[in-house]
Amino acid sequence: MVREVTRTSRLRRLGFTDAPRAERLLADPAVAGVVAAAEAAGVPLPEALSETADPDQALLAVLRLVESAQEHALAGPVEAVLTRDGPHRRRLLAVLGASSALGDMLVAHPGDAALLHDHAGEETVLDLTPDDERARALRAVGADPDAPVPVATRTGEDGVATLRRTYRRRLLEIAAADVTSPDPLADLPRVAAAIADIVGGALDAALAVVRADQPGGAPDVRLAVIGMGKAGGRELNYISDVDVIYVCEPAPGSDLPEDEALAVGARLATQLARACSAVGTEPALWPLDANLRPEGKDGPLVRTVDSHVAYYERWAKGWEFQALVKARPVAGDRDLGAAYRDALEDFVWRAVEREHFVEEAQAMRRRVEDHVPAADADRQLKLGKGGLRDVEFTVQLLQLVHGRTDSSIRSGTTLEGLAQLAAGGYVSRDHAAELSHHYRFLRVLEHRIQLYRLRRSHVVPSAEADLRRLGRAMRTDGVDGAESLEARWRQVRREVRHLHEEIFYRPLLPLTARLSAEDVALTPDAAHARLRAIGYHDPDGALRHIAALTEGLSRRAAIQRQLLPVMLGWFAAGPEPDSGLLSFRKLSEAMGTTHWYLKLLRDSGVAAQRLAQVLSTSRYAAEALARLPEAVAWLDDNAELAPRGEAALAGELIALQGRRDQPVAGVMVARYLRRRELLRAALGEVLVTGGLDRSAGIVTTAADVALQGALRVAVAEATAEAGLGAPPSRYLVVAMGRLGGAEMSYASDADVLFVHDPLPGADPEVASRAAVSVASKVRSLLGETGPEPPLPVDAGLRPEGRNGPMIRTLGSYAEYYGRWVEPWERQALLRARPVAGDEDLAARFVELIDPLRYPDGGLGGAALRELRRIKARVESERMPRGVPPTRHLKLGPGGLSDVEWTVQLLQLRHAGAVPELRTPATLSALRALEAAGLVPAEEAARLAEAWSLASRIRNAIVLGTGRTTGQRIDVLPHESVELEVVARILGHGPGGRLDLEEGYLRAARRSRAVVEDLFYG
């Protein structure tokens, strides 16, 4: 009893699920001798069976095989195989464990076990050529492979049975090599090609057999069998419909009329199908499916080459051309098959030029998914999401779009085509490698499913026993059982689906398809004509840029050849296509061989088009991108264009400064962050992903953080220079002007006040010198020229203006404001906002100035008259000569200054009584004035419109021209090209410059009327 339990436990450990049954089978008299002999030879049979996919199934098949061999007087050879360790036994047992159907075949024909002998090992069985297989199959039916028209001598049922047996014997050899392969994923292409080749050989043999039934073999009738689908691509499954198209013509020199030749050809094709799939003494092979022929089931079974050409020329739909990518002569008349292929090749590779070809292909893929039965959808290996069709459709669509100008990517074999696409730069190497690996995995899984019963199936079973057998049969990619198979398969599905959606629905594909082949090929003559037609002012210069980007055999040049035909149109959609193309060339050259840059532009749904829009619209952004090219990646993700909060930026700055010892380096980090954020704001504004509030907020936050970083460095440096161990004062930087109102533009200076407060016990003289040093260093560190753009710091709004000290103590500010504060200083303090330094000092400073800017009694008559006088003086004296006042955005009537002075005057008069008016931001104050009933809604709307439009135009001038200094950034452009650029940045369509000009002048006139009412009374 103990020995019996021990044997049972051993069998369970070896992988037998029904150990008691296995023990009984091993003890069966038919195999007991074999089991004992193998044990005595030191190669136990149970251990050998444990290596198979299903040890229980394999053991039963061994018993049946031995019994059958005994009946056929072949016991000796079969038992000899089973009692010796080696490749022969491993192949035999592996087949028996993986395929019950092939096991049944071996039981029926035990002599076929000899086919798995060492001389027919995997090192040769997968390496025969299509011609080898054709010759072998034809000889089996007694036909001469070298004859112009092979005719079988074994005919009728005997010939059919022979060709079927020959096919299955070769299938057994292929399956044995496959299931014992140390790397089935690597060997998959050879296995699939070998199956396709024996199918081709069987078709040739079947045609030879059916010709024998025609008078003389019908030599006057040429018939070519064109393989479609996986048969045409040399990537067949173990069991599948074989898709074919027939081509028939009278033989050269024959007097046979064409209609009679076609009638004979139709009989041959019909009998050929019966030879392969009708009931007979040997089981049928597979159905021959001719439904991909012109007109499908309703069309004639055979056609001439000219008839095929006529159909595809006039009537064929897009999917029919996609199917022809895999068309390959597989049997019959080789020359006729080659003539068919050559005649249709041009149709295939120009099909993409048909209207909506890509969109229809994409829609067809969605329809295929929608028609998968709901019960199978989650386990469909072929048609479902993340299945084989996702890979195959992706490869075919890319081939059709790009193959018209690149003959190197036209393979009908999926994996070969994918490799060609990767080599040509149409798919990234990483994506191609991932798709290739996953496709092999799915195909091997499909093979293992079909191999079990040699039935056509593409559904992954859900039963535990089936999954266990499949997992053990795979033995690759970390799969060795049911659980690991399920997990790995689902992971593969997810990753295939992701890549399919990213590549198959790539926006460049339909756009490339709409271009002519000449435009896609970028031939100089065609490109020159197209460039001029779509709006380039210097086509010759553009051609030079194109040549520089696309010449050569590098992968970079190959991807540029894909991108540029479409991007040229996108550049032309902008106001300055020539400038955009030049900037793109400079950016591409700066990026060099950076692996992600061109891959992003090719694969992203939006990045390439956005980049073209930015470069052809904004010189400011183009120059900034050239200095920070990694920011191109932001164009693929709206989240990257979103504003960064002050806390996040300040934390990043502290971390970066902490890694730098030198003060200048510490401030350059702050200036770098500001430059980066200016670019972020510019990209968003050009791409219309945010309004004025967004860009002003980003620019202001960047300036705030830069001031914080500069103050931190300046304090540390001034303290060290003074020979002190700690700062002698607390310090504060107060934002003024547009910085204080969080309304900065790309060209704004940073208006500030500097404050310090000596610490108790500090020497006043030392503290004062250190404070002056701190203020000077903040200005110099941020304002000096260098590798990062400067931020000019202007302290001109301080007490006594430029004649007063750069920095004062809090007490000095209190004394000055208590004795000498002017109305204009009260007005300036409306925008005061602490941005850097000591928080307690900031609170005390605000407490000091609030009564000045928000006076309880409002503004006295004398102060009101003084502000009006100053405003009138500014209008008359500061307007630049030669500039029409109505076009000056800042000082002109109804412009920025008018609106801001009006709002600030009302704040001074009413903020003491209306707390909601206590805000440094112009539009916020204007909304509060409207809400308080101090400004009518219509007048508030006119002021807001003029101020916002003037601010946006100033920003757009900087963005469009790249100028950040000079008076021209404050003037509505006269020159039509510049005005058009500004208009496009502000969202106007082509030719919108007149609308912009009229719109601003109208808004300013209305604003001025309100200003004269509210400001001047």
Structure summary:
This protein is mainly alpha-helical and 1017 residues long.
- The tally of domains stands at 6
The value of Rg in angstroms is 41 Å
Biggest sheet, open or closed, and with what strands and sense? Answer: 5 strands, mixed
CATH class of the largest domain: Alpha Beta
- Low-pLDDT stretches are none
Question: Can you characterise this structure?
Answer:
Helices cover about 60% and strands about 5% of the residues. It is built from 47 helices and ten strands. With about 1000 residues, the chain is mostly helical. The strands form two sheets. Strands 1, 2, 3, 4 and 5 form a five-stranded mixed β-sheet that branches. Strands 6, 7, 8, 9 and 10 form a five-stranded mixed β-sheet that branches. The protein folds into six domains: about 1-120, no CATH class; about 180-355, Beta Polymerase, domain 2 (2-Layer Sandwich); about 355-510, Nucleotidyltransferases  domain 2 (Four Helix Bundle (Hemerythrin (Met), subunit A)), CATH 1.20.120.330; about 515-615, no CATH class; about 645-855, Beta Polymerase, domain 2 (2-Layer Sandwich); about 860-1015, Up-down Bundle (Four Helix Bundle (Hemerythrin (Met), subunit A)), CATH 1.20.120. The termini are far apart. β2 (about 240-250), α14 (about 260-275) and β3 (about 290) form a beta-alpha-beta unit. The model has no long low-confidence stretch (mean pLDDT about 90). The chain is elongated, with a radius of gyration of 41 Å.
